[in-house]
Design a protein that fits this description.
alpha/beta; seven-stranded mixed sheet; two-stranded antiparallel ribbon; binds S-adenosylmethionine
Length: about 200
């Protein structure tokens, strides 16, 4: 895979080998239908998934309100002052995303869906071949993303969850808890793991 831009220049929270795994699974899932991610930020993961989608002749929907998660707000660990919009008094990562997609040449196949994830999920009707959950990491938000979006994953499609830390000393629990929930549902089997990224496949009934 040859990336269309210097990925290190894109703000984000993804290691290169995790990005490569996103690309590989996106490329393979794209034969089944469109792809979707929750948690776009500045588009780092969207570049990897979008490339796989494009090679497979599909599109990626990427959902974010672009106002940042709790830990990205001023005074928190992951705040980046460059994403602060002083006019609105809020974070705004959308201009960064637009720039990333333009530089990567992916504007025609990565489609930004802007708004609160749960509101969009409630109206969503299109089955997806690939679902990447990397949005809000609070328990409420992680479970809302699981409940709202996982039913849209097709049989044979894949569910990917970021920041899954089995050891609580390594990071927050909610992504690990939704991963456990997917396994306990009996609807998914684990197929890959790279750092804190977990990949599951929806079993056929
Ligand atoms: C960890 S970042 C995503 C990182 C991105 N995948 C990357 O590769 O750099 C989480 C994103 O989720 C978004 N987010 C958090 N809660 C949300 C919600 N309830 N609805 C929509 N987006 C949300 C934040 O705005 C933030 O951009």
């Amino acid at each position: 895979m040859k990336l269309p831009l210097d990925i290190a220049s894109v703000k984000g929270f993804l290691a290169e080998d995790e990005g490569e795994a996103l690309y590989v699974h996106a490329r393979s899932a794209a034969s089944l239908g469109p792809l979707l991610e929750i948690g776009t930020y500045c588009g780092k993961s969207s570049v990897y998934i979008g490339m796989g989608a494009r090679e497979g002749g599909q599109i990626l929907f990427t959902v974010d309100h672009h106002r940042g998660s709790e830990e990205m707000q001023p005074g928190w660990e992951h705040h980046d002052p460059e994403t602060w919009d002083s006019e609105t008094g809020a974070m705004d990562s959308l201009p960064f995303l637009r720039r990333t997609l333009r530089r990567a040449g992916l504007e025609d196949c990565v489609i930004a869906v802007i708004g609160p994830s749960a509101v969009i999920a409630a109206a969503w009707r299109t089955p997806v071949s690939f679902l990447f959950i990397d949005g809000g990491h609070s328990r409420t938000q992680a479970f809302a993303d699981y409940e709202g979006w996982v039913p849209h994953v097709m049989e044979g499609g894949v569910l990917l969850i970021h920041d899954v830390f089995p050891d609580p000393r390594d990071g927050g629990r909610p992504p690990f808890e939704i991963y456990e929930r997917a396994l306990a549902s009996g609807q998914f089997r684990p197929i890959a793991a790279v750092r804190s990224l977990r990949v599951l496949q929806r079993v056929k009934r």
